[in-house]
Amino acid sequence: MSAFYGLFNLGGPEIAIILVVVLLLFGGRKIPELMRGLGKGIREFNNAKANIESEIKDNMKELETKEAHKEKLNR
Known about the structure:
- The protein has helices at about 1-10, 10-75.
- It is elongated.
- The chain is built from two helices and no strands.
- By secondary structure, it is mainly α.
- The model has no long low-confidence stretch (mean pLDDT about 85).
- The protein has one domain (about 1-75).
């Protein structure tokens, strides 16, 4: 979180004001729903990222296996 504070140069009072404004705009009942939605979105993003990474690793292993097989045949 320190990178966030350094990036936007926000201190305690500024964050408190932002939280009060969010509370006034959305109300106490909507905030948990918003946070659930945000958490779900982050979870889906991380799952998609992990799937892409695993596909890339699998394809790299497959390519390495094919290259090793070609080298073995060329000997």
